[in-house]
Specification:
Layout (H helix, E strand, L loop, with lengths): L8 H4 L26 E13 L2 E8 L8 E4 L3 E8 L8 E3 L23 E7 L4 E6 L4 H6 L4 E6 L7 E10 L13 H4 L8 E4 L6 E5 L3 E8 L6 E4 L6 E5 L2 E8 L3 E3 L4 E7 L7 E8 L2 E11 L28 E9 L17 E3 L17 E3 L4 E9 L4 E5 L4 E6 L7 E3 L1 E4 L4 E7 L4 E7 L2 H5 L3 E6 L1
The protein binds CU-O-CU linkage and copper (II) ion (2 copies).
The site of one copper (II) ion has 4 residues, from β5.
Pfam family, one: Cu-oxidase_3
Keywords: Metal-binding, Oxidoreductase, Signal
Organism: Zhongshania marina
Length: about 450
């Protein structure tokens, strides 16, 4: 099989010119095993200019930020040779992929940690097309917080008539000189989480992303931040949501304001104005006010494009339909143990502030796994009744499966597929899925500090 390079240059010219442009094709591990993988990915310390006033010590996939965009094909195997060049153990998790359990990248639960200097071949097939991402599942406050997050795009079996624009969002806890602030502050960890101080889009502060005039765009927003919720909006510009968290929706709907929590994604279809140098701002809304996160700017297209009209729906992924009539319901209550008030030990988060069904699991380096939150029978449909009994929001994520959101007591739901549901404070919601993927699957909040302070567990499907 022919090796792919890390980046296809075609789209990169219009992607804000900020993605690394070349692969590590010539690394030494390469030569022996050319046929055996599609990508080499390392995790390694590096320097990057994020703050205006100086370089930062980051942890980067292939030493870069933003990390290389990995592109896979729906239904085709993807092989990534991962090399750990950090000075500590790590793993790589492929967020949103209905993957084989042994490739899910959770230390102890699905594989031994990949120790410093070791490598691991991740090999799996992506059954669904869409916008996914990858990140470690160890020492996550630091490893993700310092840059180990990247986009994984799974292309449809049949190419779609959209021009791709990847918009990767991540904030950093940096001072202006590029040095770090404490990545986690306990009194924040037990609220909404510690917010970054410098916002980046594809590694740059408030970039202007060049896009071809008159083209139909697929804006792939990825919230790869540890903490923040982006209330994505393009205001008066007629944009339409075409996929939520990687899963296409049946019929595109107008994008008004879409709350996108940590770990979540949003695909938006948008037809660019045909005038050159038109600027289209993109916002994170706070009530009626918007903070601009980046803007698009039209440039002359490289090649002549046909006139685009309408925002076509994407092909729906092959997610099995839940059999609600025969489903078993299980309830999960997320609670706040805020009464255990945090002591402000120098940025160290060693508390349990959060519980799932009265249990906290915060120790990812444990040798002994706790009992699963639930054991599900393979092939059966389950309804999870989720209750966020805390005064804070939580993007609750399930590995290895894609579920359907059925209802909520806070908003009207048109059922949709997702791997992460953003629960508002005190919200109750119902989700359903067919437990068709055997293994041990993490079930946790994607506010990384919440996960590290108890809001984490797993379910077993057997
Ligand atoms: Cu992005 Cu445990 O996941
Ligand atoms: Cu995940
Ligand atoms: Cu949370």
């Amino acid at each position: 099989m022919k090796r792919r390079t890390l980046l296809k240059t075609g789209a990169a010219g219009f992607a804000g010119a900020c993605f690394p442009t070349l692969s590590l094709a010539m690394s030494s591990a390469d030569k022996a095993s050319k046929a055996e993988y599609d990508y080499i990915l390392t995790a390694e310390p590096a320097k990057a200019r994020i703050a205006k006033g100086g370089d930062s010590d980051i942890l980067g996939f292939n030493g870069q930020f933003p990390a290389p965009v990995i592109r896979a094909k729906q239904g085709k195997p993807l092989r990534v040779l991962f090399i750990n060049k950090l000075d500590e153990a790590t793993t790589v998790h492929w967020h949103g992929i209905r993957i084989e359990n042994s490739m899910d990248g959770v230390p102890h639960l699905t594989q031994p940690p990949i120790e410093a200097g070791e490598s691991f071949l991740y090999e799996f097939t992506c059954p669904d097309a869409g916008t996914f991402w990858y990140h470690p599942h160890m020492n996550s406050v630091e490893q993700l917080g310092k840059g180990l997050v990247g986009a994984l795009i799974v292309e449809e079996e049949t190419p779609q008539d959209y021009h791709d624009v990847v918009i990767g969002l991540k904030d950093w806890r940096l001072k202006n000189d590029g040095s770090y602030l404490p990545l986690s502050i306990p009194r924040e960890a037990f609220r909404d989480g510690t917010l970054g101080t410098i916002a980046t889009v594809n590694g740059q502060q408030k970039p202007t992303i060049e896009v071809p005039a008159g083209e139909r765009l697929r804006l792939r927003f990825l919230n790869m931040d540890n903490t923040r919720v982006f209330n994505l909006s393009m205001r008066d510009n007629a944009a339409q949501i075409i996929a939520i968290d990687g899963s296409p929706i049946d019929k595109p709907v107008p994008l008004d304001v879409h709350p996108t929590g940590a770990g979540m994604r949003l695909d938006v279809g948008f037809i660019c104005p045909s005038e050159i140098a038109k600027e289209i701002p993109i916002y994170d809304m706070k009530g009626r006010f918007g903070v601009e996160i980046c803007r698009l700017k039209t440039v002359a297209p490289a090649k002549k494009i046909s006139k685009k009209t309408g925002i076509p729906a994407l092909p729906v992924n092959p997610i099995p339909a839940p059999q609600l009539a025969s489903a078993e319901s299980l309830s999960f209550v997320f609670e706040w143990a805020g009464a255990l008030s945090p002591s402000d030990a120098q940025g160290q988060v060693d508390h349990n502030f959060w519980l799932i069904n009265r249990r906290a699991w915060s120790d990812h380096s444990h040798q002994h796994l706790p009992e699963p939150l639930a054991v599900l029978s393979l092939g059966k449909t389950y309804i999870f009744e989720l209750h966020n009994a805390t005064p804070h929001h939580h993007p609750i994520h399930l590995h290895g499966l894609i579920f359907t959101v059925l209802e909520s007591d806070k908003k009207t739901i048109t059922p949709f597929h997702t791997d992460t549901i953003l629960l508002e404070k005190n919200e109750r919601a119902k989700i359903a899925f067919v437990a068709d993927n055997p293994g041990k699957w993490m079930f946790h909040c994607h506010v990384i500090e919440h996960m590290k302070t108890g809001l984490m567990g797993y379910i077993t499907i057997a």
